[in-house]
């Protein structure tokens, strides 16, 4: 998405970039700064900012939606997909992970066999990708019912401020 397919491979394409990240910044924090989920949450925002600055792709879902649950004997962790940002000539893909991962969820049958849970819903959320000349991909709804006491947590971003579109899109 950064380079048009019609550009021939050349030395300029292979020259490394020098990236300067000042100590104490969000991307190079100093102790005791909190860094939990830095690889899964911060990386999403960095890539979205890069694509937006270059004007090649609208923001994706912007969060890995880190969901954990468990009890004293078992733990489960997953990242819940969303929608990819639109590009100039195409809508974004729906129900996918973007940027730093393309992880797969545990099949519902296996999850329900290993944990006292029922996956009640896992479906696209129609219209959630935003409006524009090209639409962002739709996110998902994932509803899990616990059949025994469990503790659960969700680490995510973009709940108060939606991902940004490009060229006037939402």
From TrEMBL:
Pfam families reported for this sequence: Hydantoinase_B
Signal peptide stretch: none
Give the Gene Ontology MF terms in alphabetical order.
5-oxoprolinase (ATP-hydrolyzing) activity
Task: Mention any one GO cellular component term assigned to this protein in its UniProt record.
Answer: cytosol
Residue ranges of domain Hydantoinase B/oxoprolinase in the record: 2-169
Q: Which GO terms describe its biological process?
A: glutathione metabolic process
The record's section on InterPro entries has:
Hydantoinase_B, Oxoprolinase-like
Domain of life, per lineage: Bacteria
What is the protein's given name? 5-oxoprolinase
